[in-house]
Amino acid sequence: MKLEKAVRKVTGESLSTITDRLILDTAIKQSEALMETIVEKLPIYEVDIDEKPFEENT
User: What is the pLDDT of residue 45?
Assistant: First the structure.
């Protein structure tokens, strides 16, 4: 109880709010790191943006 009161007095927020924010921040950082890892492992293809993907039969 003393810790919760001290945290609220110093930060103006509850201990659970701060804890939730830290958990969310950690989850976001882990997700970003995972996405970076996935992107690094994806194969890279060179694409000619002027090339038409399909020829039209007309």
Answer: 77
